[in-house]
Write a structure and sequence with these properties.
Blueprint: H1 7-32, H2 38-56, H3 60-81, H4 86-108, H5 113-120, H6 128-147, H7 149-157, H8 159-164, H9 169-191, H10 196-210, H11 214-239, H12 243-271
Helix pairs in contact: 1-6, 1-9, 1-10, 1-11, 2-3, 2-4, 2-9, 2-10, 3-4, 3-9, 5-9, 6-9, 9-10, 10-11, 10-12, 11-12
Protein name: Zinc transport system permease protein
Family: Belongs to the ABC-3 integral membrane protein family.
Membrane topology: Multi-pass membrane protein
């Protein structure tokens, strides 16, 4: 019997691949709106939600999902209504989440392996309910992008033009942030809150290096994230290394390969 004969491994692999697809899609729109730091901010804000869930003895995943979505919407509200710089608001929630978690976990003395799994991920211990949640989040993300693709494209590049064309920019922004927040929570299960933002940032950055259109950027971003997650998980099984680190390392390697390839293309055009 091999490792792949175990059902729990396939549940973890499937969950990771689904989240890799949805986060890479959301990441493209956030990157174009200069909100790629939102991934880091919300993943660390979610740490406060995890700590509160432990304090109140409630389901960490469900509580953190609501907590993180509300935090994301609050960030969007402060950026939109109060005119505060996005990076400043994100830093505020980043700091608040970590500070809250440190205080609560220090008081409760709950710093065991459960917290370790949230910090660094535990993709291979996905439950049936978490797998179903990953399926739903991925499905809703795909439907959201499909239904609102043209409007999302407009607000990503120029919100003023979008308003002139009758797009409900404010509502769409809140929906985008809400979907991105939900995806970040499930990315925490895959690679931990420390690395969850990488799912949002690295694949879209890699796609922008080689893509010639917005649609191709979405496609390349999904492919990069999917491939890195698949290879990273199998490498972790073969080499007995943490899956989270392996997945993100694969993403970085793909990014560097694309940078090198673009450099070669540039040199070829210049000298040939």
């Amino acid at each position: 019997m091999t490792l792949l004969d175990y059902t729990f491994l396939w549940k973890g692999i499937l969950s990771g691949l689904l989240i890799s697809i949805s986060t890479s899609l959301m990441g493209v729109f956030l990157l174009m709106k200069r909100l790629s730091l939102l991934g880091a901010g919300l993943s660390h804000a979610a740490f406060g939600g995890i700590a509160l869930a432990i304090l109140f003895n409630t389901d960490p995943m469900v509580f953190t999902l609501f907590y993180t979505v509300i935090s994301g919407l609050a960030i969007q509200f402060l950026i939109e209504r109060k005119g505060l710089p996005a990076d400043t608001v994100i830093s505020l929630f980043f700091s608040l989440g970590v500070a809250l978690a440190i205080i609560i976990l220090g008081i409760t003395q709950n710093l065991g392996s459960n917290i370790y799994s949230y910090l660094f991920g535990s993709i291979l211990t996905v439950s049936d309910r978490e797998l179903l949640s990953s399926v739903l989040v991925c499905l809703f993300s795909l439907i959201f992008v499909y239904v609102y693709y043209r409007k999302l494209l407009l607000i990503s590049f120029n919100e003023e033009i979008a308003v002139l064309r009758g797009v409900k920019v404010r509502t769409l922004n809140y929906l985008l942030i809400g979907m991105a927040s939900a995806n970040i929570v499930f990315a925490i299960k895959a690679v931990g809150l420390i690395l969850a933002s990488s799912f949002i940032a690295i694949p879209p950055m890699t796609a922008l290096l080689v893509s010639t259109s917005f649609l191709s950027t979405l496609a390349v971003s999904v492919c990069v994230s999917f491939l890195a997650t698949l290879v990273g998980i199998f490498l972790s099984l073969e080499l007995d290394i943490p899956p989270s680190g392996a997945v993100i390392l694969c993403m970085v390697i793909l990014f560097l390969l694309f940078v090198f390839w673009r450099l070669l293309v540039s040199l070829r055009k210049r000298f040939l």
